[in-house]
Amino acid sequence: MADLNNQSRPDGNFKEAVCIDAGRIYDSCCDRDCLEDLRCFFLPEAQELINNAVSVRLRNAKVLNVSINVEPVNFNKGFYSCDLTFFFLLDFDLYTSPNTCPVSITGITSYSKRVILYGSDGNVKVFSSTACSSCEDEASAPIKTSNCPKCVVQVVEPIPLSARIGEIHNCYENLCCVPKNICDCIGGNVVTNIGNGSPAIFASIGLFSIVQLVRNVQMLIPVYDFCLPEKTCTGTTEGPCDAFKKIKFPTDDFFPPQAPCSDCGCCGSDNEEC
Question: Where do the domains of the chain lie?
Answer without folding.
Answer: 27-121+142-214
